Amino acid sequence: MIGPEQRGRVAVVLVRSRNPQNIGAVARAMHDFGFTDLRLVNDYTVPFEAAQSAIDAGEVMRAARHFTGLTEAVADCTLVLGTTAVGERRIEQPLDTLDRSSTRVAEELAKGVEASPRVALLFGSEKTGLSNEELSYCHRLVTIPMHQHAGMRHPSMNLGQAAAVCLYELVRGSATPVRERAAEPAASMGEIERMRVLLAEVLEAAEYRRHHPANSSEAHLRRLAIRLAATRADAPVWMGILRQVLWKLGKPARETR
Amino acid sequence: MIGPEQRGRVAVVLVRSRNPQNIGAVARAMHDFGFTDLRLVNDYTVPFEAAQSAIDAGEVMRAARHFTGLTEAVADCTLVLGTTAVGERRIEQPLDTLDRSSTRVAEELAKGVEASPRVALLFGSEKTGLSNEELSYCHRLVTIPMHQHAGMRHPSMNLGQAAAVCLYELVRGSATPVRERAAEPAASMGEIERMRVLLAEVLEAAEYRRHHPANSSEAHLRRLAIRLAATRADAPVWMGILRQVLWKLGKPARETR
After folding, report:
1. Residues 6+ apart with CB under 8 A from B159
2. Where is average pLDDT lowest: A162-171, B146-155, B166-175?
3. Residue B151 vs residue A219, higher pLDDT
4. Contact at 8 Å (CB) between A199 and A221?
5. How far B238 CA lies from chain A's nearest CA (Å)?
6. Residues B199 and B225: beta-carbon distance below 8 Å
7. Mind listing the pLDDT tens digit for each residue in A48-94?
8. What class does CATH assign to A4-171?
9. Residue among A99, A155, A181 minimizing CB distance to B94
10. Could A161 and B29 be called an inter-chain contact, meaning their C-beta atoms sit closer than 8 Å?
């Protein structure tokens, strides 16, 4: 949905995140999905050594910027989205599920460079999420739809996993084509008929037909042969097997007799 | 896409996962999205204490089953999907990106109870992924579309994050409706006109109109007032502010003079 060239216009803003492992996990998810702009808001300097050592997170972590306040952290952003587990909290901003938010982000970024669109995606602290004061910076809120377990507190996701899911949703559908296996040619109906005949000979030779005539009709065997010969490459393999079985049963295939 | 009642028919199978933190993270993601069937394939018993202590993972971890071989682990499954980063490896199975796989899973589960559909989602070891022998159990392969960084090895995701993204995609679109904020009533045009008049008085009193007549036209001020009064609750607030400014400028609002 959001092309690779637009991902530089999406900032991931971690507010009061204090767990270096989680920060590293967010950076790794950003790296995995092609995002680069990580902003950390903390009123004191967090030691990042542990985060920087996270696999694949190095580049993103090195470019991360530190802010002491949210005002400065989102000053250049034209759309600010706050992630929330919602729960029992009263919310003042319009709330979207993640897939809808992704569309809004794409619409904002589609405004083009002259509008200087820049989107901030805010994540709160691991323990408390975003405070009401922090949510007041948000144009809209985002929630990842989670399963509500009966009688349990409202679920909240691990920070690194929540970031991975959000960023995946942002790039979903814009995937560069995967290296597909070459389309497998299908077996021709001529090959399938030859298989069907061989199969009939095997059932005859094995005295299966005598015991199960209903399962040995031409139509039934043809349907079986179609499923056996799922690909053109499979057909000669199966025919070799069937011929060998016939030979072993002392009734070599008629076509080769 | 996959309803809550169908999620019990999806097994997450971790093959040769040895990091209890990662196993715990997978269990937590399963809990978050309402999945319960975790299967661990290892040729020796992994100590799970660390995994069981993971937040929200306890229930899923306690129900997890241990298998010594993949044959037994997927014996009751009718569709086996193997996750892979693809990379340079030659693949023998058809490959889907995650969103397409999700549709296939939904189609399989839609076959209904009489077909006993059960889907296995396989994740390989953190270091090497699934081996070719392990991939041979798979009907199809799944890949999460990731960003290919120039000159870097093909990316692979952290196991806990990959599981979270896959399970999110499976439940995506089946979200229970989120608790929406009550629709905000819009300000009436009558209120907006009163605001527009007050705004004109402020610009007059502040001698702004004299310096910027083009910005002070009735139509221009009406457009400004419409955007100011984004909601019905905003309108009286703004009118109070404008009246106060007029009073302070020594030109109390005409309507109240």
Report:
1. B14, B17, B19, B22, B25, B26, B123, B126
2. B146-155
3. A219
4. yes
5. 18
6. yes
7. 665 666 667 788 999 999 999 999 999 988 889 999 987 656 677 88
8. alpha beta
9. A181
10. yes
Tokens read off for A181: 């296996």
Cα Rg of chain A (Å, integer): 30
Q: Choose from B97, B147, B157 for mutation: most chain A CBs within 10 A.
A: B147
Q: Which residue would you say has higher pLDDT here, B136 or B13?
A: B13
CB contact under 8 A, A160 and B160: yes
**A145 contacts B178? CB cut-off 8 A:** yes
Residues in chain A within 8 Å Cβ distance of B171: 145, 147
The chain B residue lying nearest A165, using CA atoms, is: B165
- Contacts of residue A205, Cβ cutoff 8 Å, sequence gap at least 6: A245, A246, A249, A250, A251
Q: Which residue of A has its CA nearest to B140?
A: A181
**Which residue from A95, A98, A165 is facing B164, i.e. has the nearest CB?**
A165
What are the tens digits of pLDDT across the range B187-236? 777 888 888 899 999 888 888 888 888 888 888 888 888 877 767 778 88
C-alpha distance from B108 to closest chain A C-alpha (Å)? 18
State the Cα–Cα distance between residues B25 and A56, nearest whole angstrom. Answer: 19
| Chain A residues touching residue B56 (CB < 8 angstroms) | 155
Largest CA distance in chain A: 88
User: How far away is chain A from the Cα of B168, in angstroms, using its nearest Cα?
Assistant: 7
The CB density around residue A4, as the number of other CB atoms within 10 Å, is 14
Residue ranges of domains in chain A:
4-171, 189-256
Whether B11 has a pLDDT exceeding 90, the answer reads: yes
- CA-closest candidate to residue A239, choices A184, A203, A191, A189: A191
CB contact under 8 A, B176 and A99: no
Our CA-based measurement puts residue A113 at a distance from the nearest CA of chain B, in whole angstroms, of: 23
- Please tell me which of the candidates B94, B145, B169 has its beta carbon nearest to residue A175: B145
Q: From A143, A129, A89, select the one nearest B176 (Cα to Cα).
A: A143
Cβ–Cβ pairs < 8 A, chains A and B: 128
What 3-state class would DSSP assign to B208? helix
What's residue A175's pLDDT? Answer: 53
Spans in chain A with pLDDT lower than 70: 45-55, 87-90, 153-154, 174-186, 230, 256-257
Report d(CA A73, CA A130) in Å as an integer. 15
Query: Is the ipTM here above 0.90?
Result: no
Per-residue model confidence as pLDDT tens digits over B50-83: 566 666 778 899 999 999 999 999 998 888 999 9
